[in-house]
Amino acid sequence: ELQLVESGGGLVQPGGSLRLSCAASGFTLNNYAMTWVRQAPGKGLEWVSTISSGGTFTSYADSVKGRFTISRDDARNTLYLQLNSLKTEDTAMYYCARGGRYSDYHPRGQGTQVTVSS
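User: That's the sequence. What structure does it adopt?
Assistant: Structure tokens below.
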């Protein structure tokens, strides 16, 4: 059974950092591009970042460029998102999804909540 399980979210002050993880099972991670998306309260899904199969190419939304870093460990079947210099506007539920930037973001996990607040 295909599963994506996010973890690592939490409450952090502005300027703080978090590292999100996405554990994949039921498929071979290294065959797929992977994407992080987020959804703030009352808003739609927002693309955050994508990493290519093999990890050669990465891309980021302008709103997170220079602050977030996507990476993958295919041996561990795990995707990561390092969040630095967090802002209140980064508050959202973060999801990992199989596929690229322009996919339908299915399948995706249940999400991990990131709250940035003083």
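The first strand starts at residue 3 and ends at 7.
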